């Protein structure tokens, strides 16, 4: 089945630094979603991408739907302590089953 | 009030016990999902339902069963819990591409 490879697995950065993480797939995806999970909570949607090449921002977050439709990245600018959490990419594959496929997650820690 | 609620939030049980996790939603969505989260493995789909009469197995359905009692309710059962079912369980709903998650149930099987 379709799989997503998310990297890096974890990051430990200084407050104020920019962060970049990405997801890749061996097959085409029709939708890319980025979620954040705070400790003890469920994932919350950050950004949704629907077209190849689409670049979308949500405050300090920016995500892009790769031109090849096989990858996506998420950037966080000027990180702050509340950015701590697990970030997941997810997507709908070309088979359009209605099921989301998730990456393994990137754990972000921010040092004040 | 939360749109997607899960009960209980935490549960400790013993091997062999039957456990039911419940999910309710006020979003009016037809589609509901159950996921399991383990460290380093992301979210894995257990079962999903696109409407009250539709139930489908996900990638890791063995050892689990579900019931869609109404549009707003989707419960997950472990008929005979085993220790490797210790995990964080999430319910989600959707009406299109975007899924909305509940707060999770932390289940420990001793």
How far is it from the N-terminal to the C-terminal residue of chain A, by CA?
41 Å
Radius of gyration of chain A: 13 Å
What is the helix content of chain A?
under 10%
Report the principal-axis shape of chain B: globular
Shape label of chain A: globular
What does it look like?
The complex is a heterodimer of chains A (112) and B (110). By secondary structure, chain A is mostly beta strands. Helix content of chain A is 0%, strand content 56%. Chain A is built from no helices and 11 strands. In chain A, strands 2, 4, 5, 9, 10 and 11 form a 6-stranded mixed sheet that branches. In chain A, strands 1-3-8-7-6 form a 5-stranded antiparallel sheet, with no helix packed on it. By secondary structure, chain B is mainly beta. In chain B, 0% of the residues lie in helices and 59% in strands. In chain B, strands 2, 4, 5, 6, 9, 10 and 11 form a 7-stranded mixed sheet that branches. In chain B, strands 1-3-8-7 form a 4-stranded antiparallel sheet, with no helix packed on it. In chain B, a hairpin with a 2-residue loop joins strand 5 (42-51) and strand 6. Chains A and B meet through strand 4, strand 5 and strand 9 of A and strand 5 and strand 10 of B.
Write a concise synopsis of the structure shown.
The complex is a heterodimer of chains A (112) and B (110). Chain A is 0% helix and 56% strand.
Please supply descriptive tags for the structure shown above.
heterodimer, A: mainly beta, five-stranded antiparallel sheet, B: 110 residues, mainly beta, seven-stranded mixed sheet, globular
Describe the secondary-structure layout.
The complex is a heterodimer of chains A (112) and B (110).
Chain A lengths: L3 E4 L2 E5 L4 E7 L3 E9 L6 E6 L5 E4 L2 E5 L5 E6 L8 E9 L7 E2 L3 E6 L1
Parallel strand pairs in A: 2-11
Antiparallel strand pairs in A: 1-3, 3-8, 4-5, 4-9, 6-7, 7-8, 9-10, 9-11
Chain B lengths: L3 E4 L2 E4 L5 E7 L5 E8 L3 E10 L2 E4 L7 E6 L2 E6 L8 E8 L4 E3 L3 E5 L1
Parallel strand pairs in B: 2-11
Antiparallel strand pairs in B: 1-3, 3-8, 4-5, 4-9, 5-6, 7-8, 9-10, 9-11
């Amino acid at each position: 089945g379709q799989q997503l490879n998310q990297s890096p697995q974890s990051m430990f950065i200084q407050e104020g630094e920019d962060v970049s993480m990405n997801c890749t797939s061996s097959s085409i995806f029709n939708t890319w979603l980025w979620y954040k999970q705070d400790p003890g909570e469920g994932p919350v949607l950050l950004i949704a991408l629907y077209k190849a090449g689409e670049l979308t921002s949500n405050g300090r977050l920016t995500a892009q739907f790769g031109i090849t439709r096989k990858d996506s990245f998420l950037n966080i600018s000027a990180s702050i302590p509340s950015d701590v959490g697990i970030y997941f990419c997810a997507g709908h594959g070309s088979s359009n089953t209605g099921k989301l496929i998730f990456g393994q997650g990137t754990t972000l820690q921010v040092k004040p | 009030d939360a749109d997607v609620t899960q009960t209980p939030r935490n549960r400790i049980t013993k091997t062999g016990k039957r456990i039911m996790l419940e999910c309710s939603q006020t979003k009016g969505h037809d589609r509901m999902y159950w996921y399991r989260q383990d460290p380093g493995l992301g979210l894995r789909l257990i079962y999903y339902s696109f409407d009250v009469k539709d139930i489908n197995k996900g990638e890791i359905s063995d050892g689990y069963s579900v019931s869609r009692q109404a549009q707003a309710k989707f419960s997950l059962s472990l008929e005979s819990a085993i220790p490797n079912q210790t995990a964080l369980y999430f319910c989600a709903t959707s009406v299109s591409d975007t899924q909305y998650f509940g707060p999770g149930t932390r289940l420990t099987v001793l």
